[in-house]
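Reply to thread "Modeling small-molecule complexes from scratch"

Following up on the discussion above, here's a worked example others can learn from. I took a protein sequence and the SMILES for zinc ion and predicted the complex. Inputs first:
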Amino acid sequence: MRDGPHEPTPRIVSRRTVALATLSLGLTACAPAERAPSGTATPTSAGPTPSSSAPGPSLAPSASPSVAPSSTPPAAGPLTSAPATASSLAYSLTDPASQWVVVNKRRPLNPIDYAPPLARPNVPLEVSGESAQVHPTTARAAEALFAAAAGAGASMTLASGYRSYATQVATYNAQVAAHGQAMADVASARPGHSEHQTGWAFDVGAPGGCNFAPCFAGTSAARWIAEHAYEFGFIVRYPFMLHDITGYYYEPWHVRFIGIEASTDMKRRGVATLEEYFGLPAAPTY
Ligand SMILES: [Zn+2]
């Protein structure tokens, strides 16, 4: 071994430190490319605005029974014993139009350039264009979620919604050009591997300048989401210290709609990731 005078003793960097360092570098899979031209769009009285290009809010087959918060957990059934098997699944895990589709580094969307029906939810928006839209079912559930959070004094905004395949290609290529592929793979999902492309997920923002940053975890919005999102059919998709399973470091702002029955069942059983819930393999890398 080379005997240098000041060889630093190798310091064991804890996984927690790596997780927080990644966050503080803003290396999250969600930091959006675009922002609203000015100010925040205030919600109008009418419901979600279906985008002109999308077919009317088609609910079947991805419509969950209802988006109203369920106070009583569902009756025992395929959801309450072991992870659902193929035969007991209410929704597909591979069809991007299904609210149970599982997308991760090892499960790209098929077709890779899939585009969902879209609607603009009637909630406070920090973005415009495609990023202000989500799937119509997600939009209705988001309106209920935001209304309840506002009622509890947790002010939230929609900070990033739908991200088309084309937008991802542009974002990812820019990351590769700027930081190289290895860093790009930490900083953003490869095109076709992002939940934002399905319309079932969006990022929550909050006043105070902590969007997509470690300090977001300390906001009343993040605390409220962590405690109540499941009541509206949402989960925090990338929980703390589970990046070995999900492939992404902790993102307290990224929520995914799966329907109230499944989100309540996951909460009740203490299952934190979709991979574990559906008995799918971990996806730490591509
Ligand atoms: Zn996200």
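What I'd highlight from this example: The beta strands are 49-50, 119-120, 157-160, 201-205, 234-238, 251-257. The first strand starts at residue 49 and ends at 50. Questions welcome below.
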